[in-house]
Design goal:
This protein has 121 residues and is mostly beta strands. The chain has no helices and 11 strands. The protein has strands at residues 4-6, 9-11, 17-22, 32-38, 45-51, 57-59, 67-72, 77-82, 91-99, 111-112, 116-120. The relative contact order is 0.32.
Amino acid sequence: VQLVESGGGSVQAGGSLRLSCEAPGFTYDTYCMGWFRQAPGKEREAVASVNVVSRSTKYGDAVQGRFTISTDNAEKTLYLQMNSLKPEDTAIYYCAAGAWTYELTVSAYPYWGQGTQVTVS
């Protein structure tokens, strides 16, 4: 399973970025997907997750109200719209797939992308 993230970059505090995750070979409409992030010296933490069938979502406390996870099932693409970015959002952001429920736990997801860097200054 290949997950390809894009859309990372550098932005000033208060700005926005939109991350994308393409999953062309994945049985996209069966499992749940999520976004996680990892800052230097810190553990990987959950950002958001989605049930691609019901479109139900969950968010980590640090991003609730600022980030929005969405999915285009026809294009097998997962998105993360990030608004009101803060310096503490700086991290490598990873797309994850394959969970049976839209959990905010790393261990629930067997498939991971390579990550995309987001830097907020």
